[in-house]
């Protein structure tokens, strides 16, 4: 069984090497970023322990894909499969558990531990014929597929938003609105293969326009209840509310454009760092988007025309 983990480590190392980042550096940056993010949550939100629990479960959710279970069951015994699954979930959630224990959030730590155990036993996906209907068109497909995969995150966000209203915490409510934007961004984490792009007849400009428009529609649909609650409960801050909404749309646009700026390859390390810097400083993101959009159109035109 230890060969499985060695193989996963080797695969991750090779993918990161293609990205231009050594594995130890990536692990260090990931751990530091997660801990700093948790510290930020504790400094800003009273519901920080449960926000951290939700973020941890969302991050580890892809490990419960039914296809992964099928592959593991073909290679290992049932006992070894369970051991692998528990090792993955508990290792992935260990940093959050340590943070929760360090802050004395014993109940949240217990909830997280229970959820990690349930997630280790849970198999996502199946062979049923039912397909969840969505308000999105078949093409572009990202929003429809993303909602079917991660739609369960929305009730969690709405629950946190309700807690923000109950606690009279406007920042918590804004956080959930931004969370809807991050959810939509996750739909576009992977770019489709060139073979799939050739079915589009609208050219590079129309292709990007349809992607951005559908993503903006998804963001508006998901976040609308939260922004309505903000407008009703805190009407005096409507200017800031609109700025945050616009920021979410800008982030989503940046996510889509940067994915195609280096197409068919995934964004490299430097471009990803620039993207993160732009998210921290939105005027920079606006400047970067101009160059990335031109590059994305040039690369897509080579395939679509």
What this model shows, in words?
Residues 126-130 have low confidence and may be disordered. α3 packs antiparallel against α5, α11 packs antiparallel against α14 (282-304) and α13 (269-280) packs across α14. The chain has 305 residues and is mainly α. It is globular. It folds into 2 domains: 1-129, no CATH class; 131-305, no CATH class. It has helices spanning 2-19, 23-44, 48-60, 66-75, 78-102, 106-121, 142-150, 153-166, 170-187, 194-197, 203-233, 238-261, 269-280, 282-304. Keywords: Membrane, Transmembrane, Transmembrane helix. The chain crosses the membrane at residues 21-42, 48-69, 90-119, 139-160, 172-189, 216-235, 242-261, 273-293.
Number of strands: 0
User: Structural class per helix/strand content?
Assistant: mainly alpha
Label the overall shape: globular
- What is the percentage of strand-forming residues? under 5%
DSSP helix fraction: over 70%
H/I helix tally: 14
SSE topology string:
HHHHHHHHHHHHHH
Span from first to last CA? 48 Å
Largest sheet: none
Mean pLDDT: 81
Low-pLDDT segments: 126-130
Number of folding domains?
2
Taking Cα atoms only, what radius of gyration do you get, to the nearest Å? Answer: 20 Å
Features of the shown structure:
305 residues; 2 domains; 14 helices; transmembrane; transmembrane helix; mainly alpha
Describe the structure in brief.
This protein is an all-alpha fold and 305 residues long. It contains 14 helices and no strands. α2 packs antiparallel against α3 (48-60), α3 packs parallel to α6 and α11 (203-233) runs antiparallel to α12.
